[in-house]
Amino acid sequence: MSNTTTAMSSDEPGKSQPSATIRGLIIRFVLLGIFDILGIWLIVNLLSDGYWPLAGMFTLIVIFANVVFLREGMYPLRWMVIGLSLMALLSVYPILYTFWIALTNYGDGHLLTEQQSIDTLERQTYLPETGAAYSWTAFQGPDGDYS
Predict the structure, then answer these.
(1) Is 125 domain-assigned?
(2) Which one of 3, 27, 47, 113 is least enclosed by Cβ atoms within 10 Å?
(3) CA dihedral angle for residue 60, residue 66, residue 68, residue 70, rounded to 10 degrees
């Protein structure tokens, strides 16, 4: 029997841990660094353009990816980071953004008070000054019902 074991292997059955090589660690850190640089660049641009909620979502995605790739205990989640990130970005974020828009004055129709909106609608005319206005009457049958 040999007394030597590798640093990343486990003697317990059913519990396997990934073997970490120097080359694998370097590749992981380089790719994570590139991802972080691109993520921070995107977040800064989104913040400067005023897209605060989207910048917040990208910040959470970048932090989540870093935590998953830097902690050895989260090794199984490495396979799901892309899917979970896309799910958060393409389904969870639009739902939260729609909910936020519905409950704030961010929408276009909520910039005026109710009375200002009524006055604006009453000032709008769709008939030219020289145009003819027609009146209409609903058709009434012989029994007095409207059809």
Answers:
(1) no
(2) 3
(3) -160
Give the CA distances from residue 15 to residues 1, 10, 11, 95, 99, in Å, rounded to whole numbers and listed in that order.
Answer: 21, 6, 8, 39, 43
Q: 134 falls in which pLDDT band (50, 70, 90)? A: confident
Q: Is residue 143 part of a domain?
A: no
pLDDT tens digit sequence for 91-102:
999 998 888 888
Read off φ and ψ for residue 140, nearest 5 degrees: -115, 125
User: For 51-80, b where at least 16 C-beta lie within 10 A, e where not — what string?
Assistant: eeebbebbbebbebbeebbeeeeeeeeeee
User: Taking the mean position of all CA atoms in its chain, how far away is CA 55?
Assistant: 9
Q: What is the pLDDT of residue 104?
A: 75
In angstroms, the CA 80 to CA 119 distance is 54
Compute the average pLDDT of residues 95-110: 75
Q: 22-48 and 52-70 helices cross at what angle (nearest 10)?
A: 170
Q: Provide the domain limits for residue 64.
A: 22-106
Give, rounded to a whole angstrom, the gap between the first and last alpha carbons of the chain: 97
Residue 13: pLDDT over 80 = no
